[in-house]
Specification:
single chain, alpha/beta, Rossmann fold, eight-stranded mixed beta sheet, 12 helices, 39% helix, 15% strand, globular, disordered N terminus
């Protein structure tokens, strides 16, 4: 599976070489999107169109995830709230093991926790338990409600980890795409040691006038309230931010600008681009034990000593 994803990365990189290269010309203040019309914004944030082979990758993820769920059925669909999607799949690596909480992607309106169970496999092999969080989607839930339920999921796990066998003192949150947004939105939860956000969205304002908002129905105030980049706290847990060098320019800008904002505010952050990775193949780096994202999780939960990191990229 990983080999297929690597091959897809090359195709996507070649197919979008010119468009991706434009990221180097984006204004330093990150406001280029303000001059975009609806069509341009749709294009700028349409990861599926940018990586058309992503649909096949997703089918592979689902098949692999079904296998993982069959192999680890003990703690599936743990309810943390009254909504149908207020469920958590907990994959245990054993007693007193560190825990990775993961929020799935899908632009807050599609996909599910069950689709991403495949990511748990390599972490279980490293002695890290994994909690895959489900959450309500738009339009049934507003962005305020989605973020509130993300907080509720983390608090539920904090209370339940002793009975599940996880170590409450070693809990890290992560997420991909819209899940990266949710991971950073809950970073202030006391039970968390830090966060690892992958290809996330941290300023929701550009999405208000795009197709992404057709089901979310955010107004500008809701977008601002729920944008981690626009609501920086006075202090914070450590945060690792990753994006792929072959992602859409706006996706790369979102991560780079958020990292810059945190640095200016004096908040702990490390920003890195994974060379050649697009919005989908970047998850290879989380799957592989030798991947930078995988190792960042290991370091943050305390099972790997800090390793030298490449210079930060923008």
């Amino acid at each position: 599976m990983i080999e297929n994803l690597r091959a897809c990365a090359c195709v996507a990189t070649l197919g979008f070489l010119f468009f991706t290269a434009c990221s180097s010309t984006a204004p330093a203040n990150g406001k280029a999107w303000e001059s975009m019309d609806r069509s341009a914004l749709d294009h700028a944030y349409n990861n599926s169109a940018a990586v058309p082979e992503g649909a096949q990758m997703f089918k592979e993820w689902q098949a692999r995830s079904a296998q993982v769920r069959e192999q680890h059925p003990e703690h599936l669909d743990l309810p943390y709230g009254p909504r149908e999607r207020n469920r958590i799949d907990y994959f245990s690596a054993g007693l007193n093991t560190p825990v990775l909480i993961f929020f799935h992607g899908g632009y807050w309106q599609m996909r599910s926790k069950a689709d991403f169970s495949f990511l748990a496999e390599s972490f279980l092999g490293q002695g890290i338990s994994v909690a895959m969080v489900g959450y309500p989607l738009g339009p049934e839930a507003t962005m305020d409600e989605i973020v509130a339920d993300a907080h509720a999921a983390v608090r539920y796990l904090a209370a339940q980890l002793p009975s599940l066998g996880g170590d409450p003192a070693r809990v890290v949150v992560s997420g991909w795409s819209s899940g990266g947004h949710l991971a950073t939105s809950v970073l202030d939860e006391p039970s968390l040691r830090g966060g690892v956000a992958i290809s996330g969205l941290y300023d929701l304002a550009p999405l208000v006038r795009s197709y992404v908002n057709d089901k979310l129905h955010m107004d500008e105030a809701a977008a601002r309230r729920n944008s981690p980049m626009l609501n920086l706290p006075p202090s914070s847990k450590p945060l690792e931010l990753f994006a792929g060098s072959a992602e859409l320019p706006e996706m790369r800008r979102q991560t780079a600008d958020y990292a810059s904002a945190r640095r200016v505010a004096g908040l702990p952050v490390h920003h890195e681009e994974i060379s050649g990775a697009n919005h989908y193949t970047i998850l290879n780096d989380m799957l592989r034990p030798e991947g930078r994202i995988h190792q960042a999780v290991e370091v943050m939960v305390g099972i790997r000593p800090s390793v030298p990191t490449p210079p930060e990229t923008r």
